Amino acid sequence: QVQLVESGGGLVQPGGSLRLSCAASGSIFSIYSMAWYRQGPGKQRELVASITSGGSTNYADSVKGRFTISRDNAANTVYLQMNSLKPEDTAVYYCNAEASTIVSGPSIRYSFWGQGTQVTVSS
């Protein structure tokens, strides 16, 4: 199995910044795409940003120009730098990885999730 552990959430004032990290560990054969999702109060989970193993990125319109996703393939870690935070960014942020495992081999890909980290933007 693959475990994802997020860190870096917290309380920040509007206009502030936070950096989330997500480290993958376990019986990893390869990690393909990694992504950050979020779920605000009373809302459905939504994609915030994703990044492929080659570094191609995709962002939700609501965070373009403010958030930056990056990854360290050697460390199996993905980051989300969040700047100019707004109250509407308040949510639980979840890390997701599309990966294959040593047991199943490269032909089968699974979707793994972290436990989530709370981000609260409030004055």
Structural commentary:
- This protein has strands spanning 2-7, 10-12, 18-26, 28-39, 46-51, 57-59, 67-72, 77-82, 91-101, 110-113, 117-121.
- The strands form two sheets. Strands 2, 4, 5, 6, 9, 10 and 11 form a seven-stranded mixed sheet that branches.
- A hairpin with a 6-residue loop joins strand 4 and strand 5.
- The chain is 0% helix and 58% strand.
- The protein has no helices and eleven strands.
Concise description?
The protein has strands at 2-7, 10-12, 18-26, 28-39, 46-51, 57-59, 67-72, 77-82, 91-101, 110-113, 117-121.
Please give the structural blueprint.
Layout: E1 2-7, E2 10-12, E3 18-26, E4 28-39, E5 46-51, E6 57-59, E7 67-72, E8 77-82, E9 91-101, E10 110-113, E11 117-121
Parallel strand pairs: 2-11
Antiparallel strand pairs: 1-3, 3-8, 4-5, 4-9, 5-6, 7-8, 9-10, 9-11
How many strand segments? 11
- Characterize the largest beta sheet: strand count, sense, and whether it forms a barrel: 7 strands, mixed
Total count of helical runs of at least 4 residues: 0
Average predicted confidence as pLDDT: 96
Q: Radius of gyration in whole Å, from Cα?
A: 14 Å
Structural class: mainly beta
Strand content: over 45%
The percent range for helix content is under 10%
Task: Please write the string of helix (H) and strand (E) elements.
Answer: EEEEEEEEEEE
Distance between the first and last residues' Cα: 40 Å
List low-pLDDT spans. none
So what's the overall shape?
Answer: elongated
